[in-house]
Amino acid sequence: MPRPRSLTPDQLASAALSVLDREGLAGLSMRAVAKELGMSTMALYRYVDDREELEGLLVERVLSAVDTTPPEPGAPWDDRLRIMVGRLRDTIIAHPAVLPLTLTHRHRSPSGLRWSETALAILTEAGLDGERRVLALRALLGYVIGAIQLEHLGPLSGAGTVAIAELPPDAFPYMAETARQARSVGVEREFFGGLEVFLRGLGA
């Protein structure tokens, strides 16, 4: 039976994103999205086969906001990579709960694939190929994903840093001192400072 045309994929994804932003990943379900749309759960299955398909639409809805246009070709490769990483971060931190889904559905999102294609072109121009280019892209994505998770789940300004700073210095001298210093590091400095460490190693 043909699916009804009254709702578009973008409308479905927007409803799912509203649920995700409000209730987190644990609250994302077919039932919750159907309720957001004002329909029964069974009616939602007339538009998508299962939750996996809905998640794929949701991921593409978020990542479609990323500008994947190659930065100015005359700029240094590391500057262009900083721009690409900044674009991706700006998009994801607006909807941090989507982060785990971007990993699961990375091969289903045209926008995510275009971002990686542009990043790979920059890495290639920097002289990386073969296995080294594979590892570079994976490490770059690993840094971005991990840094965003740390920013939202364990921020330097949070209670965890305060607790670590108060650890007994005889047992944890480096942890306690580092945590005390960490409290003055802003989120932008934390993210892009860590990215600088990665890029310096990549260019070595």
From TrEMBL:
<feature type="domain" description="HTH tetR-type">
    <location>
        <begin position="6"/>
        <end position="66"/>
    </location>
</feature>
<dbReference type="GO" id="GO:0045892">
    <property type="term" value="P:negative regulation of DNA-templated transcription"/>
</dbReference>
<keyword id="KW-0805">Transcription regulation</keyword>
<dbReference type="GO" id="GO:0003700">
    <property type="term" value="F:DNA-binding transcription factor activity"/>
</dbReference>
<dbReference type="InterPro" id="IPR036271">
    <property type="entry name" value="Tet_transcr_reg_TetR-rel_C_sf"/>
</dbReference>
<dbReference type="InterPro" id="IPR009057">
    <property type="entry name" value="Homeodomain-like_sf"/>
</dbReference>
<dbReference type="GO" id="GO:0000976">
    <property type="term" value="F:transcription cis-regulatory region binding"/>
</dbReference>
<dbReference type="InterPro" id="IPR004111">
    <property type="entry name" value="Repressor_TetR_C"/>
</dbReference>
<keyword id="KW-0238">DNA-binding</keyword>
<keyword id="KW-0804">Transcription</keyword>
<dbReference type="Pfam" id="PF02909">
    <property type="entry name" value="TetR_C_1"/>
</dbReference>
<protein>
    <submittedName>
        <fullName>Regulatory protein, tetR family</fullName>
    </submittedName>
</protein>
<dbReference type="InterPro" id="IPR050109">
    <property type="entry name" value="HTH-type_TetR-like_transc_reg"/>
</dbReference>
<keyword id="KW-0678">Repressor</keyword>
<feature type="DNA-binding region" description="H-T-H motif">
    <location>
        <begin position="29"/>
        <end position="48"/>
    </location>
</feature>
<dbReference type="InterPro" id="IPR001647">
    <property type="entry name" value="HTH_TetR"/>
</dbReference>
<dbReference type="GO" id="GO:0046677">
    <property type="term" value="P:response to antibiotic"/>
</dbReference>
<dbReference type="Pfam" id="PF00440">
    <property type="entry name" value="TetR_N"/>
</dbReference>
<dbReference type="InterPro" id="IPR003012">
    <property type="entry name" value="Tet_transcr_reg_TetR"/>
</dbReference>
